[in-house]
Design a protein that fits this description.
With 116 residues, this protein is mainly β. It contains no helices and eleven strands.
Length: 116
Amino acid sequence: QVQLVESGGGLVQPGGSLRLSCAASGSVFNVNAMGWYRQTPGKERELVAHITRYGITSYAHSAKGRFTISADNAKKTVYLQMNSLKPEDTAVYYCNVVTVFRGTFWGQGTQVTVSS
């Protein structure tokens, strides 16, 4: 059984920062990549940032220059540092883990609200 637990979401003013964390536990082996996605009501879940087992990162256009994804492989944790937040960043943020042999696992989501 694999569990992903996100934390760090909350309410922040425009221009503020948040750091999301996602800790994986259980039988998490052969991780190929980890990522952060977000979803707003009525819209499909979209990729925010992605990091491979080799540390190669990629970002959605909206996240470039403001968000930074990082991972601690020993702790099986992935982070998303979000700076210069905008109201349009408001969403439920989900982390995922892509494994080589067992497919993809998702966390339960954490709400991020950017509002004054």
